Amino acid sequence: MTKVLLVEDHEELWDFLSRRLRRHGFEVVLAHDGRQALDQAGLEAPDIILLDLDLPILDGWTVARTLRSDNVSTPIIALTAHAMAGDRAKALAAGCDDYHPKPVDFHRLLVQIDDALLKREEAEA
After folding, report:
1. Measuring CA to CA, how many Å separate 68 from each of 23, 58, 61, 101, 114?
2. Which of 19, 31, 44, 92 can bridge 37 by disulfide, Cβ–Cβ 3.0-4.6 Å?
3. What pTM was computed for the model?
4. Which CATH number fits domain 3-120: 1.10.510.10, 3.30.565.10, 3.40.50.150, 3.40.50.2300?
């Protein structure tokens, strides 16, 4: 079973996403702030991280940079309301592998998750 670390501080969104991801066969681990995200990434060894960029304690930009500086290669998809020109490039530069603007298009997010996992498998082969 693929393990997803869902890092989101808004209850409605983490509830919605975690329920839908579980229905699609994913194991979901939750973190509600940037510090918890780093802790859970180390403890749970997720297969993929869905990372809100606007988080309390440590923002998602810092979380992504920290994970990459610690040589964590887990794919990271930024989930963000930042949808201005240049925000996607900024998320990728911080260490995210992909970018998904809010509101979440769940079907599109599933495609992005599958693509990120496939790329990881190919890189490890």
Report:
1. 30, 15, 11, 21, 21
2. 31
3. 0.95
4. 3.40.50.2300
